[in-house]
Amino acid sequence: RFSKNEVVVPGDWDASYLFVTLVMPRHEKGAMPPKNKGESLTEKEIRTVAEWIHKGAKIDGEKGKPGPENWHPDRLLKFKDGRVVTEQFGEAPKVKKVEAKWEIWSNKEGKKITARFHGLVKDKVDFELKNGKRMSYPLEQLSAESQARIQGLIDSPVMMSEDD
Questions:
Q1: What CATH number should be reported for the domain whose range is 103-159?
Q2: Helix or strand or coil: residue 144?
Q3: What is the DSSP letter of 79?
Q4: C-beta separation of 35 from 71 below 8 A
Q5: Is the pTM of this model over 0.85?
Q6: Cα(160)–Cα(134) distance, rounded to whole angstroms?
Q7: Is the bond into 33 cis (omega within 30 degrees of 0)?
Q8: What does the alpha-carbon distance between residue 116 and residue 114 come to, in Å, rounded to a whole number?
């Protein structure tokens, strides 16, 4: 827990995997919380985590060495519109949320539904039906054409959004 490249590097919030995963764009692998698994932390909550790490990350009485004052999060951690801004790379681009469009999907038997595609989890397609209900459907039971469209959507950067 308290070593380089570990979850928490006491005194070095910017090198702590915990902190890095909290501020990375939601669509990136490893981002916390994962896409579709809750809301991002607020600016205040992110600052609290960074400050805790900077002060030595005390857990159950064990505490590491605090970071240097010139690396205090209050001096270096900047936000704009709720997103972390870094001097090295400039402001992170905002990702526009794209609402899935209604499409007709078919299964291998030729039955069709009109639904919005919301993702794929463990080979199950997450569809939203016109009545607002969500359903999971096995990918392998969809027609080859529907499977190909889903693969195209998964591979598309348009599928990624900050607010999912």
A1: 2.30.30.700
A2: helix
A3: E
A4: no
A5: no
A6: 19
A7: yes
A8: 7
